[in-house]
Design brief:
Shape: globular
Strand content: 5-15%
Helix content: 40-55%
Number of domains: 1
Number of helices: 7
Number of strands: 3
Largest sheet: 3 strands, antiparallel
Radius of gyration: 18 Å
Strand order of the largest sheet: 1-3-2
Structural class: mainly alpha
Distance between the termini: 47 Å
Length: 197
């Protein structure tokens, strides 16, 4: 039995996003490798350090403040065990520290260490060059429009995937507005600080 699949702009859009994600991950691996990191470790370190370019749930984290692994897992749409394994690897490398959250010893507040911040600073020039090259053919207004579309897609996925407790904690929105639609190709997420697991 054969299934007829019709051409669809929506399907093409989503499949193109999947291919784009694969290529961006491969490029991220190349950038992160210079510091002995995987792309996922690098992205997590960026988020813990408070990179303002990530889409986010709730209020943004200020650079230098702490964030919870559970908040990152929710924002990134991945499991807590996945984030925990990545956090452990960054702790072992001395790039992230964790401390018990006052009032709940099960929760660990994550901080980028000076070594972690230095690693990010060494990757940043190559990141900037890669982003500029990727987006060189686009006007800022086109990039802003694309970013709004992508963030709306994320909003829909986040809203559909949040538990009732998470909806109460984060609200229905993700905390970004049209004014947040910048032009950095390497949009990454910043999590809400000290909200609990």
């Amino acid at each position: 039995m054969s299934v007829k699949i019709n051409e669809s702009t929506e399907e093409s859009f989503l499949l193109t996003l999947l291919d784009l994600a694969n290529h961006l991950t491969r490029n991220g691996e190349r950038l992160a490798q210079q510091e002995g990191l995987t792309a996922q470790q690098w992205l997590l370190l960026l988020q813990i350090a408070g990179d303002p370019n990530f889409p986010r749930l709730g209020a943004p984290t200020e650079p230098g403040t702490s964030v919870l692994a559970s908040t990152i897992a929710t924002a990134r749409g991945v499991s807590r065990p996945t984030i925990s394994a990545l956090v452990s690897s960054l702790v072992q490398k001395g790039l992230v520290s964790q401390a018990e959250k006052p009032g709940d010893r099960r929760q660990k507040a994550l901080h980028a260490t000076p070594a972690g911040l230095a690693a990010l600073a060494r990757i940043e020039p190559a990141r900037h060059i890669a982003n500029k090259a990727l987006l060189a053919g686009f006007e800022p207004s086109e990039i802003s429009l694309a970013l709004r579309v992508l963030r709306s897609c994320l909003d829909s996925l986040w809203s559909a995937g949040l538990s009732e407790a998470e909806r109460e904690r984060f609200g229905n929105g993700t905390g970004h507005s049209d004014a947040d639609a910048g032009t950095d190709a390497d949009a990454g997420e910043t999590s809400e600080d000290n909200k609990g697991e």
